Amino acid sequence: MSDVPSTAPDEGTPAPDEGTPAPDEGTPAPARHRAHKVSIWSKLSLTGSRLVLLLGVVLVLVGGLVANTAQTAGGNIRVEHVRFLTQSGLVETGLLYIPSTATAKTPACGVVTIEGYINSVDTMDGFSIEMARRGCVVLDANQTGQGSSQPPSFADEFGGPAALAFINTLPIVRHGDVGLIGHSMGGWASVLAAYTQPKAYRSIVLVSSSVSTPGVEPVPGTPTFPRNVLVDEAQYSEFSQLMWAVPQGSDFPHSARMQTFFGTSQPIVQGKVYGSIAAGTGRELLIHGTDHPGLTIDPSAVTDAVHWMQLTLVGVSSMPPGHQIWYWDEIGTLIGLIGVGLFLFGVAGQLLKTSYFGAVVRDRPENRSMRGPLWWVGAAVLVALGPVTFYWLQEWGSNHLPAGPYLPQTITTGIAAWAVGGAIIATLLFLLWHFTTKKDRRGTLHTYGVTEPDGTVDRRLLWRSVVLGATVVVVTYIAVYFFDWAWSSDVRFFVFNIKPLDFVHMQIALDYLWPFLLYFIVLSIVVFGQLRPRMKTLGTFMLAVTALLVVGYVGFLGLEYGVLFATGQLLTSSQPLLTIVGDQFLPVFIIIGTVASYFFWKTGRIATGVVVLTLLIPAIMVASTATQGIPW
Question: Nearest to residue 569, comparing CAs of 259, 250, 277, 302?
């Protein structure tokens, strides 16, 4: 990405307007010729937006069918949404996987899968699908305060006891012939469930999780409790210190905490079963070459869990543990996620063709952004600003703005504080640049994409821009809700997803609109006023803007995880949770870059892009994390 030569056409030269009316018959021949070119271009563009919309719809349908085929094992498993109450009366939710062989006359084994912190049921799809394929009824439970389960998070032992109690009430499950598979905090929920109902389960798989975590987990793990435990760990776990009190994952066999749990004083031998499965004291450690969240999509981790359940439960089929299809669910939901993105741009393109919303289309203002070496300095500052402030601003927000009825999500509040802090710093740097630039090159509110050429705000245009942005988000979410309704799944990949919002999450999202509104206004002015790339096509412009926003986080996460995979510890080893949160910044900033640049290119103003992002990004965040406070 670099400046074009000074002889290149000025970015401010308006591109042909798709909505430009046909010229008057008296227009001179050259003008008529130009208008004819505009007409052809307009038709091609119209076809393009329709094709994008159609492709988005097709990918949503195809992705859903692929995911659902894997999730139901080709129709042999029924998947249902379920709701049940915790001991204090909170509503907990989950997905129930029912194999066709499980009936009241022929009850099956049961398995409860529980996701980790700031995740939801889809994180455990691999384990759930494969256990259901082997004849077990599987309850994939949302922890309290996560997914669509009622907040607050951490309540009622993370929802673990309620999930175990619920599956044992089902007439299609052999009561007590139940296993628990928990990732991270879901492992703690599983241990607490086992503690409160010692006769309701047979075994546990702790997926990058632990027992006896001081200050977090009050139930001590011993050589006899819980019953039959497989510890499936990550060699590059970000949480090795928290889980087993060792500095890095390769030290797990030497963990004194784990050795006590296994009933030995010697380094633990991987793959060796300690104790006796028949007596309920079985213990085994297996370590895989991935990180903490990576275990949820690691086929070998799924193989381990299946094999352990085959050893410890009565009714699991003998299908080879390595025979797996769950990854097709991941592929399908990824296809659906891409489809929803294309659907958004297709909807936007079609709306811009209407007479009402077409009025927001304006010529792009003259580009008075930085040039030459100065542009690279400004870009470097923008690229570095987010990662440099990533930890301390989020930590400040989480510590000083505790979760309550307003701003009830600790993680989202931390990100909002980071966004506001970054916006303030960026504003000061922007103003410094603005007022030190020569007057003949200094930008204006118009060239920054805010006002009309005369410096005024067209209220009618602003209102239509707001309505357009809101309409794009609402219509896009129709595809998200459809995906959930038709296939009981989210559009997602790995830990990033776009979930449907229930009423509670809609309320919460409103709490976070103002900090993100400020952030996206400032970010848009900086990118399109100070650092606007001089590209000649929409595609290259979107690519350049997105790269500008994403490259800093690629470098930041590459550095953190490069050190982790080289040494066994994160560069910032004191921030494992926020580093994992950072994984989701890559897809989020891809969305931010493509959406903001698309609407600026199309409308010549920042307003519509700001509205879309202010509504969309908080909605994605609040539905995908944990709610610690109880909303109003």
Answer: 250
Q: Give the pLDDT confidence of 206-233 residue by residue, as tens digits.
A: 999 999 776 666 677 999 999 999 999 9
> Residue 140 — left, alpha, or beta (φ > 0 → left; ψ -120 to 50 → alpha)?
beta
pLDDT in tens, 540-582: 999 999 999 999 999 999 999 999 999 999 999 999 999 999 9
Residue 246: its H or E element: none
- Output the CA torsion 440→441→444→448 (10° steps): 160
Query: What is the C-alpha end-to-end distance of the chain, expressed in Å?
Result: 47
Closest CA to 230 of 158, 176, 301, 279: 301
d(CA 160, CA 196): 10
How confident is the model at residue 30, as a pLDDT? 38
The secondary structure of residue 274, as a DSSP letter, is B
pLDDT at site 39 = 43
Name 577's Cβ contacts closer than 8 Å, sequence gap at least 6: 117, 238
pTM (predicted TM-score): 0.90
- Distance, CA of 101 to chain centre: 35
Low-confidence ranges of the chain (pLDDT < 50): 1-46
Q: Which helix (H) or strand (E) holds 139?
A: strand 137-141
Nearest Cα to Cα of residue 308 among 265, 355, 271, 267? 271
Cα separations in angstroms, 290 against 166, 233, 258, 555, 568: 33, 9, 20, 20, 11
In Å, how far from its chain's centre is CA 428? 31
For helices 513-525 and 503-511, give the axis angle rounded to 10 degrees.
50
DSSP classification of residue 530: I
Q: Which amino acid is at 621?
A: M
Using a pLDDT cut of 70, give the percent of the chain over it. Answer: 92
Q: pLDDT tens digits for 2-49? A: 333 333 333 444 443 333 333 333 333 333 333 344 444 444 444 588
Could you please state the CATH topology (level 3) that the domain comprising 74-324 is classified under: Rossmann fold (3.40.50)
C-alpha torsion angle, residues 329, 335, 336, 340 (rounded to 10): 160
DSSP state of 150: P
Q: Residue 404 has what pLDDT?
A: 94
- The helix (run of H) or strand (run of E) holding residue 88 is none
Domain locations in the chain? 29-64+331-361+369-623, 74-324
Other CB atoms within 10 Å distance of the CB of residue 535: 18
Cα–Cα distance measured from residue 455 to residue 446, given in angstroms and rounded to the nearest whole number: 6
Identify whether the C-beta of residue 600 lies closer than 8 Å to the C-beta of residue 606: yes
